[in-house]
Design goal:
The model is unreliable at 1-14 (pLDDT under 50). The strands form three sheets. This protein has a six-stranded antiparallel beta sheet, with helices on both faces. It has a two-stranded antiparallel ribbon with strand order 3-6. The chain has helices spanning 2-12, 16-29, 87-101, 112-115, 129-133, 169-178, 193-210, 233-253, 294-298, 312-320, 334-341, 409-429, and strands at 35-42, 47-54, 81-82, 278-279, 285-286, 309-310, 357-358, 376-379, 385-388, 392-398. Helix 1 (2-12) packs antiparallel against helix 2 and helix 3 packs across helix 8. It is globular. It has 434 residues and is of the alpha+beta class. It has a domain at 86-309: Beta-lactamase.
C-alpha cells in the first residue's frame, strides 16, 4: 500500500494545481489522515490555493463524539485542527516577537530577570530568551516525569477522564523553576518542549506585572485567574500570556472565534474540531476538541508548546503575518520577521532560527522539501505544517494521529514533501507567480 502511495505522490506532482489535489486525496485514500486543509499563499499573503478534503474520521470509523452520529466533511473555514507544536510559532514565538519589536524585551535578556533568581539554580542563571527560542537552553526534550504521569502529582491524574482545568498549572510552573539541565546553556541544540513552556511563563509574568492591561483575562481563562492575588502565580502568568496573544495577535490579524485555546462544548466548539487519537492510557476516551498533548492538557490546555486549535483560513492569516511582501499583515516589522526566520548559526551546526526551524543543509527532516534552504518552517506532532518561503508559503493541517497516536510517522513525512513538491511544480507552471 505505501509503495503504491509513493508512486501516486511522485506522478501527482506533475499535474499543476490539480497535482496538489491528487497528493492530498491519495493520502486520504491511503489512510494517512482522514481529512485535511491545505493552502498556498504568495509573499503578500494572497491565496493561490485553499482547499479541504476528506472528513473528520474514515467512513468505516465510529462517528466523532461531539457530532451527533454524523461524520462532517472538513471545511477550510470552520474545521478546527489541533495545531500541536505549531503553537510554538503562532503563539509563543509571535508573543516574544511582538514584545521584542516594541522594544520591551531584548532577546539576550536573562530568564532570571523575568522569572526571578529561583530559576537560576542548577546552572540556569545564564539562560536567555534567545537560548529558549533556539532550543539551546540545555533542557531535555520533555519533562520527566511528564505532567500527566502519576509521579508528577497533578490532583486530577487517575480520574477517568482527568479534568481539563488549571488545578495543576501552578505545580507545572514551580517545576519549570526547578527544572534541571542536560547540557550547559548555549552549548548544543536539542529540540525541547521545555524551552517553549518556560518561555510562555516568562513572557506571561512580564506581561502580567509590567503591562497589566495587556494581561486582562478573557475567553480562555476565567476572569479571576488573571487578577493578581486571585489565582496562583503560574495560573496568573499563563492566563496573561494567552490573553496578550488574543488581544495583540489574534485581534490584530482578525482571526475568527474558531481559532484559540480550549474549544467549548457549545455548537461550533468541540464539534468543529477534527478528532485526534483514542487515548486508552490517560484520558480514556476518543479525543476531540481537547488538546491531545498530555503535558498541555495536564496544565489546563494552555502552554507555550501546544494547545492552540485553528482553522485553515485563520492559519493562513497567521502564516501571512510572517511573509516577505509589502502588503503582508502589519503584525511585526520587516526587520523582526527577517531576524526571527533566518537560521541563526548558533549553536554551531544547528538549523534553527528563532522559534522556527529552517531547511538549512544541517536540518535532517527537510519537512518543506523541495523548497529552498532559507525556508523557515515548523511541524506539529498531529500532522500539521507551516512552510514560510521567500516567494510563497504553504500550509497543511491534518490529523495523522487519528486513530493511533504513533501512526503514520513516515507516511506524513512523505506526504509533506510530496505536497510541497506538487506546489513547487504548480508554481513553476504558473507564469509570473515566482
Amino acid at each position: 500500500m505505501f509503495l503504491c502511495f509513493l508512486w501516486i505522490l511522485t506522478t501527482a506532482a506533475k499535474n499543476g494545481w490539480d497535482g496538489i489535489d491528487r497528493v492530498l486525496i491519495s493520502a486520504i485514500e491511503a489512510r494517512i489522515f482522514p481529512g485535511c486543509s491545505a493552502a498556498v499563499i504568495d509573499s503578500n499573503g494572497a491565496l493561490l490555493y485553499a482547499k479541504s478534503f476528506g472528513r473528520f474520521v474514515y467512513p468505516d470509523s465510529a462517528p466523532p463524539p461531539f457530532n451527533g452520529g454524523a461524520n462532517p466533511p472538513v471545511d477550510f473555514n470552520s474545521t478546527r485542527f489541533d495545531l500541536a507544536s505549531l503553537s510554538k510559532i503562532v503563539v509563543t514565538t509571535s508573543v516574544a516577537a511582538l514584545l521584542y519589536d516594541a522594544g520591551l524585551l531584548e532577546l539576550d535578556a536573562k530568564v532570571t530577570s523575568l522569572l526571578g533568581p529561583a530559576f537560576g539554580e542548577g546552572g540556569k542563571e545564564n539562560i536567555t530568551l534567545r537560548h529558549l527560542l533556539l532550543h539551546a537552553a540545555g533542557f531535555p526534550p520533555d519533562p520527566s516525569p511528564g505532567y500527566s504521569e502519576s509521579a508528577f502529582g497533578c490532583p486530577g491524574t487517575g480520574l477517568h477522564p482527568p479534568p481539563l482545568d488549571f488545578s495543576c498549572t501552578d505545580r507545572v510552573f514551580n517545576m519549570v523553576l526547578s527544572q534541571s539541565l542536560v547540557s550547559p546553556p548555549g552549548s548544543v541544540y536539542l529540540y525541547s518542549d521545555l524551552s517553549m513552556i518556560t518561555l510562555a511563563f516568562a513572557l506571561g509574568k512580564f506581561i502580567a506585572e509590567s503591562r497589566p492591561t495587556w494581561g486582562a483575562a478573557g475567553a480562555a481563562c476565567a476572569s479571576a485567574a488573571a487578577r493578581p492575588g486571585s489565582a496562583p502565580p503560574g495560573v496568573h502568568y499563563i492566563c496573561a500570556f494567552e490573553a496578550f496573544w488574543r488581544a495583540n495577535v489574534s485581534a490584530t490579524l482578525g482571526l475568527s472565534a474558531n481559532t484559540g485555546y480550549l474549544p467549548s462544548s457549545e455548537p461550533g466548539g468541540k464539534s468543529a474540531a477534527a478528532p485526534t487519537w483514542m487515548d486508552d492510557e490517560y484520558r480514556h476516551e476518543q479525543l476531540q476538541g481537547v488538546v491531545s498533548d498530555e503535558n498541555s492538557y495536564a496544565a489546563g490546555g494552555i502552554l507555550g508548546h501546544a494547545g492552540l486549535f485553528a482553522t485553515g483560513s485563520d492559519a493562513v492569516k497567521m502564516l501571512a503575518a510572517w511573509g516577505t511582501g509589502v502588503r503582508r499583515p502589519a503584525l511585526l516589522s520587516d526587520s523582526t520577521v527577517a531576524l526571527l526566520t533566518a537560521a541563526a548559526g548558533f549553536p554551531p551546526g544547528s538549523p534553527r532560527a528563532l522559534g522556527w526551524d529552517t531547511q538549512a543543509i544541517s536540518d535532517s527532516y527537510q519537512g518543506c522539501s523541495p523548497m529552498a534552504p532559507n525556508t523557515a518552517y515548523h511541524t506539529g506532532y498531529t500532522g500539521t505544517l507551516l512552510c514560510r518561503g521567500e516567494n510563497y508559503s504553504t500550509l497543511l493541517l491534518a490529523a495523522r494521529v487519528y486513530p493511533n497516536k504513533t501512526g503514520n510517522v513516515n507516511e506524513i513525512h512523505a506526504t509533506r514533501q510530496a505536497f510541497n513538491a506538487a506546489v513547487a511544480d504548480a508554481m513553476l507552471d504558473s507564469v509570473g507567480l515566482w
